[in-house]
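User: For my dataset I need records formatted as: sequence, then structure tokens, nothing else. Please produce one.
Assistant:
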Amino acid sequence: MSDANPFAAPADRYEAVDVAVEMRDYGGIGRLQYFGYSVLVGIINNVLQYAAISAGVPEAVFVLTLLGLGVSIVLVVQRLKNLGYSGWWAIGFIVPILNILVGLRCLAAPEGYADHKTLDGPAKVILGIFVGVIVLGIGVVFVIMASR
């Protein structure tokens, strides 16, 4: 790695600091692809399950559920790879409560989050919406409990 500080001010105000910043290629899929593919997998899985129930083959629903879960885990592994995390964190996708953390991180965190730990604008908006929905849900529960 270079000894030059990429954040140092230039010695002369007309001289530019020439530093090659090493960028890591994370691979995987980005936020938008993850969201789009997840919605698509959910829609296709629900349509196939409805077709299986309508055809009178309820045993196929279990197989389709496992197939949808498998495809979802593959998507989570690819997204975690893009974030810089190990694919083994995808096991957390099937663990209750931990799946909220893994899913939220896959949906909100920008590429390379494991290395720089900073959120960008869209991630803050997504987290704000998530917190707003949680607060709204708690408020609705309190209103229902108070009306009894």
